[in-house]
Design a protein that fits this description.
alpha+beta; Cyclophilin_A-like; Peptidyl-prolyl cis-trans isomerase; single chain; eight-stranded antiparallel beta sheet; Cyclophilin; globular; 2 helices; peptidyl-prolyl cis-trans isomerase activity; 8 strands
Length: about 150
């Protein structure tokens, strides 16, 4: 898949990850990811919660899991896309309409999350990089997104 404005690139401390955005599934969440990426919000943000065999979570500049952007929380856009290896989905609290800036990338199938979390993208390049992100909950000396960009059309 060619990089377009429907793709974001994460340059991480472990290497490059390319994510195809799925506005057809979650237009408001994709718009939020693009907005925050364009603002440089994700630059330097740690992968603060990384559970082996499950997922790598990022998007909280505080690195605590309780932070987010100054933008309002999003209404859920739950969809039928399955949570499988490479799926990118929004993190949230127990309240369904609480997604803001945090997201996670699935290491493997996590179908128990289907229709309960908003899938907004899929890793199309660099899953081997995601596989090497340092594990922990919380992670000590975490890997980070060095720079996130929306790929030019």
């Amino acid at each position: 898949m060619a990089e377009t404005n429907e793709t974001i690139v994460l340059e991480t401390t472990k290497g490059r990850v390319v994510i195809a955005l799925r506005a057809d599934l979650a237009p408001n969440h994709v718009e939020r990811i693009k907005t925050l990426t364009t603002q440089g919000f994700y630059n330097g943000v740690p992968f603060h919660r990384v559970i082996d065999g499950f997922m790598a979570q990022t998007g909280d500049p505080t690195g605590t899991g309780s932070g987010g952007s100054e933008l309002p929380d999003l209404n859920a856009e739950f969809n039928a896309e399955p949570h499988v290896r490479g799926t990118c989905s929004m993190a949230r609290t127990n309240f369904p309409h609480s997604a803001n800036s945090q997201f996670f990338i699935c290491f493997s199938d996590a179908r128990f999350l289907d229709r309960q979390y908003t899938v907004w993208g899929k890793v199309i390049e660099g899953m081997e990089v995601v596989d090497t992100i340092k594990r922990g909950e919380p992670v000590r000396d975490p890997d980070r997104i060095v720079k996130a960009t929306v790929a030019a059309a």
